[in-house]
Structures are given as C-alpha cells and as structure tokens.
Amino acid sequence: MESKNPVFSRSRRQAGGWSGPAAPSPDVLQNMYDAPSYAPPSRPAYRTMTLDDVVVRGFITLGALVVAAAAAWILQVPPVVAIGAAVVALILGLIASFTMSTNPALILAYAVFEGVFLGTISRLFEGLVSGIVLQAVLGTAFAFGAVLTVYALRVIRVTPKLVKFGIAAAIAAVGLLLVNLLVGLFNGVGLGLRTDTPLGWIFSIVMILIGCFFLLLDFASVEEGVKQGAPEKFAWQCAFGLTLSLVWIYLEVLRFVYYFSNSD
User: Which range, 25-29, 235-239, 257-261, is most confident?
Assistant: First the structure.
C-alpha cells in the first residue's frame, strides 16, 4: 500500500520515481519454493554406442558366420543348397543395407546363410587346391589389418570426394559383372573378367581394392557413430557392414589365390 507520508513520497521522487515491484501472491511464492534450485543435466534417452559395442557385435556376427561355414563344410552341404543360401543371404543383405537395419535377428540370419555358402564354396576350392582356404583367410586378415592401420594413421582420409569415387567404382564393377554374366550365357567366358588371364587378375585386384575401400568406410562409420553419440543398437549395423566387407574381400582373395595356384 502506498504511503501518504509526504517525506516518503518526496524521497521516492528524488530517487528516480521508483515505487518498487508489486508484492508476489501466495501462489507465486509457493511455486518459487517448490522449484528445484538447479536444473539437472540433460541425458540422452538411450545408451550411446561405444567401440566395445561394435567389437562385441562384430565377434558375434562373424562367429555365427564361421560356425555356419564350419557346419556346412563338415556336413558337406550340396552346392545347390549353398546357392540357395547365397540367394537368401543376398536378399537379407540388401534389406539390411538399404533400410540401415539394426535388427540383430536379421543381421545374424544373414551371417548364417552367408556362412553356409562360404563353407561350401571353401570346401570345393580346398578340394581343388590344398591349403587355399588358409591362404585366403590370412590374406583377408592382412587386408583388414592394413586398412585399419592406414585409417588409424590417417594415411587416407575418408572425404566426400573419395566416397563418391569409390561408390562409382563399385557400381561400375558390379555392372561389369552383370554384363560378363549375360555375355557368358552365350560364349561361356563372358568378357573374360573371371578367367585365369591377365584381365581376370587385374579385375580381381580391383575387386579386392573395392572391398578394402568399403572396409575403410566401415571404420569411418564406426568412428563417426561413437563420436556423434549414436544409439547402442547402431553397433549391429556397423558389425553387419564390417562382415559384409570381409566376406567380399575373402571371396576375391580366394579367387585370386586360385588363379596362381591353379597355374602351377
């Protein structure tokens, strides 16, 4: 309530006319009392992905693939069944790739069907050239270690320009494979891309390098996912990408080693 005392009124005028704020109501005072004294730090609604998550999921996915491959080898799965498994693995892989799926069941199912195909084809190659599977495995492990070292040392940086060039090269290679397959239906050898000739050797080397390029993209995806705080479930997609690249490299190394082993 404003005072009627002329001394107080004159003092307020000399101080600049300040009359003070209105007194807060009892409800406002209660709200101020109930409010917390500090705001708690915001946390994401999910657990973020770590490098350990990717490693664990990667071992699980590769483990399922290896177990399925070993079973197919021991049980001597017929090639027809292996081809059917390869078709199923291709379909599941395309679904997981284009939808960026993080569903463990889908990714592990891909690993199992792919493992059946790899186990059967590896057994067939081993029957032709003794020790070729071990050489292909060691070659794949060497490629993995080399790409990881190159990426860790930043010898090659994953830039948008490099990604565009690599994707274009992969699309061109797949297109050539399809043309080679279609032409092969008429002349039996196609364009010669999959024959034991210098052209076939060069094409296999290119395919191995494309597989290494995708492995480089996988490492970049893992690092970016961890850095950006991606959800934990994204580790399954990273594990799928790594498995897909390693399968690509293994098959190409297996074919490349066969060329020179067969020449002996």
Answer: 235-239
Burial code (b: 16+ CB inside 10 Å, e: under 16) for 131-145 equals ebbebbeebbeebbe
Q: Residue 232 is encoded by which pair of tokens?
A: 């934990």
pLDDT in tens, 13-49: 444 444 444 555 655 555 555 555 554 555 556 688 9
The reported pTM is: 0.80
Structure tokens at 27: 């409800």
Q: In the chain, what are the domain boundaries?
A: 51-263
Sign of CA dihedral 156, 218, 205, 171: negative
pLDDT in tens, 182-226: 988 888 778 888 888 888 899 999 999 999 999 999 999 999 999
Nearest CA to 255 out of 222, 191, 219, 211 is that of 211
Q: Which residues pair with 84 in a beta bridge?
A: none
Beta-carbon neighbour count of residue 260 at 10 Å?
11
Residue 199 makes CB contacts below 8 A (sequence gap 6+) with: 191, 192, 193
Q: In the chain, what's the furthest Cα-to-Cα distance?
A: 118
Count of helices and strands (H, E) across the chain: 9, 0
Q: Which residues contact 171 (CB under 8 A, 6 or more apart)?
A: none
